[in-house]
Amino acid sequence: MDLILxxxxxxxxxxxxxxxxxxxSIPQISTxxxxxxxxxxxxxxxxxxxxxxxxxxxxxxxxxLSLFAQRLAQDDAKSGAIFDGYPRTAxxxxxxxxxxxxxxxxxxxxxxxxxxxxxxIERAVGRRSCQDCGHVYHLRYNPPPSPDVCGACSGSLVQRxxxxxxxxxxxxxxxxxxxxxxxxxxxxxxxxxxxxxxxxLDLVTTRIKEAIGVS
Length: 215
Ligand code: AP5
Hints:
The chain is α/β, with parallel strands linked by helices. It is built from 9 helices and 8 strands. The strands form 2 sheets. Strands 2-3-1-4-8 form a 5-stranded parallel β-sheet, sandwiched between helices. A 3-stranded antiparallel β-sheet has the order 6-5-7. Helix 1 (13-24) packs across helix 9 (201-212) and helix 4 runs parallel beside helix 5 (90-101). The radius of gyration is 16 Å and the shape is globular. The mean pLDDT is 95. BIS(adenosine)-5'-pentaphosphate is lined by residues 7, 9-15, 30-32, 35, 52-53, 56-59, 64, 85-86, 88, 92, 123-124, 126-127, 136-138, 141-142, 162, 171, 197, 199, 201, 204. BIS(adenosine)-5'-pentaphosphate binds at residues 7, 9-15, 30-32, 35, 52-53, 56-59, 64, 85-86, 88, 92, 123-124, 126-127, 136-138, 141-142, 162, 171, 197, 199, 201, 204.
């Protein structure tokens, strides 16, 4: 199955993708995670990503397309993937269609996770991630055992640089201008299933499973 988890910053795409990946036995492909990993090793590419990410702007397509294509070509994605945060522009959506078509695959569903703006901001600002294992918490909704320590591996928890209120608002503006129009692109093919993203994590997972028809 090839599935897009669609939604604005803080909608819960990454959290839900990780849960679905175990249930569906297909990988999560998150361009945001890949860019942060590149930035963490301090590569030239990572520095270019950082320039845009730290301002809350989308990274230009020419830097994203090959990064994504290389990941999709890996063995674990040969029978499907959950796309988290990709595609985000019309160019990326068309490139994804072409890549899948060349493998005789196509997008089966676009799960659009809907959350009001003020909640998205609260979620992003309260998010903490483990810098060792990547586990994601929220200080209020999904709290770690201690504010600075990961419950899964005892690593240190950090706040993402782009999780300030001001940057989240810029990310949301980018989403509205460049990414939200893709709902029309996929809507014309009847692929979009809206899901209410407000509520307990398990409840949102159940709604997504119902929307994509898995038990
Ligand atoms: P990316 O990393 O993709 O970020 P995003 O799309 O802005 O989404 P987030 O990771 O902020 O949120 P999420 O929906 O995954 O929510 P999460 O599950 O973590 O992109 C970052 C940047 O990289 C972009 O701004 C851009 O610069 C660049 N980039 C990436 N991909 C790109 C592309 N394709 N093209 C161009 N540029 C690209 O949840 C958020 C918080 O809420 C967590 O703390 C979580 O615990 C909590 N939470 C989750 N669900 C619930 C719930 N139901 N109730 C309460 N709390 C919840």
